[in-house]
Amino acid sequence: xxVFAILVIVIFNFAxxxxxxxxxxxTPGMLWVTFAFAGVLSxxxxxxxxxxDNCLEGLMVCPVSRETIYLGKMLGSLFxxxxxxxxxxxxxxxxxxxxxxxxxxxxxxxxxxxxxVTIGTxxxxxxxxxxxxxxxxPILFFPIVSPVIISAVSASGRVLGGESWGDIYSWLGxxxxxxxxxxxxxxxxxxxxxxx
Amino acid sequence: xxxxxxxxxxxELTKFFGNHHALDGIDLSVEPGKTLAVFGPNGAGxxxxxxxxxxxxxxxxxxxxxxxxxxxxxxELVRARIGIVSHQIFLYSNLTAYENLLFYSxxxxxxxxxxxxxxxVSMLGMQSRxxxxxxxxxxxxxxxxSIARCLLHKPSIILLDEPETGLDQYAISMLxxxxxxxxxxKLTTVFTSHHLERGxxxxxxxxxxxxxxxxxxxPSKGLDLxxxxxxxxxxxxxxxxxxx
Lengths: 196, 244
What we know:
The structure holds 2 protein chains of 2 kinds.
Chain A: H1 2-15, H2 20-44, H3 48-52, H4 56-60, H5 66-96, H6 103-127, H7 133-160, H8 165-195
Chain B: E1 8-17, E2 20-30, E3 35-39, H1 46-53, E4 61-66, E5 69-70, H2 75-79, E6 82-85, H3 97-107, H4 113-123, H5 139-151, E7 157-161, H6 169-181, E8 188-192, H7 196-202, E9 205-210, E10 213-219, H8 225-236
Parallel strand pairs in B: 3-8, 3-9, 6-7, 7-8
Antiparallel strand pairs in B: 1-2, 1-4, 4-5, 9-10
C-alpha cells in the first residue's frame, strides 16, 4: 500500500508541473486520489484472509459480538490507512514543495479517513463473497463515500489557500456528520451482512 | 453454568434458503454429558443444524436453548461454552499453529493461555509442529490443531461436523480419546457423520435426518449396526452407499 501510494505521488510529480500556485491548487486532488486508491487496496484485504482460510466462521463462533468484529476490522483498516498517510504526506511535501503538514490538514485527513474506513469496512464484508470482489468494492463504495472525499478535497484546498479555520468549519462539519452516519449505519448493518 | 435441564434443547427449528427447507421443524434435546450422533445423506441438514447450534447461522424460525440460555438473546455467553470442529479448520494458513492458538486464546479471554496451549497441543501429540505455519502442514495435522483450537477454552459442549475428514485411523482414535480425556467434566457432544459404525459406538443417542426432518431417533444402547443400517435405508431411501 505504501509503495503503491508513493508510486502514485511520483507519477503525479512527473505528470504535473507549473508555478507554486498551480501546484497548491492541484495538491488536494492529488492527495485524495492517492489516499482513496491506497485505501481501497487496504479495504480489499480487510476480509480476504478470513475468506481464503474460511476463518470468518471461526471468528463468528468466538464469544464476541458481530459489532466487535466490525470495530476490530475497521480499526485495523484505519491504522493501515493512517500509516500510509503518515508516510505519504512528508514525501508529497518533499516532491512538490507544498506545506501539507499542518494541524488543520491533519484534522481533515483523520476525519475523512475515519469516514472512508467506517463505511468501507462494511462494503468490504459485503464484497468479499462476490467473485469479482476487487472490482465490486470500488463500484459499490466510491459513490457512497464521494461526499466525504469531495468535502476533504474542498477543505484541504481552503487550508492550502490560506483560508481561516472559520472557512473550513462547514466542510469539517459535513465530514464529521458523514463519519457519524457511516459509523452508526455500518455498526448496525454489519451483523446482517456477515450473517447472510 | 450448570442447569438441571438439557444441555441442548431445540424447538421447532426451521431454516430455509429461498424455497428450500434445510431444516423443517426440528425438535431435539441432549442431556448434559451425553453424545448425540446425527446421521443423514448429503443435503439432509446436518451441517445447517450444527451451524445454527454454534450460532454461525440464524434460524428462520424456532428456538435453541443451550444450558437453559436462549441462543438468540445470549449468543456471546453461549459461544463461550461451545467448541466446534468442522471440516473447515478455522485457522489462518500464513500464521503458525502457536500464533493461531494465541489469537483464539485472546478471543476467548483465556487467562493462563500459554499453559493451556501447551496442554491441548500435548494431548494431541503435536508439540513438534507447534511453530510451523498451518499452510505447510498436512490436512490431518491441520485438523488436529483445529481440535486444539476447539478445546482451548474448555467448552462444556462440543459440536463436531464430520470431524474425521482428512484424519487417519490413529488421529480419529486420538480425537475421540482427547474429547473423553479433556478435564474432569464429561462433555456434551453433538456430531455429524456418515460413518454409522463409529457413530453408533460413540454416541448415547442418534438421530437420522432426511430432507430437513428427523426421520428417526433412538438411544444407541442395544442397537446393533445391522439394525441401524436397515433403519437408515428405510428412513433415507438410500442404499447406504455413502455410509460405512
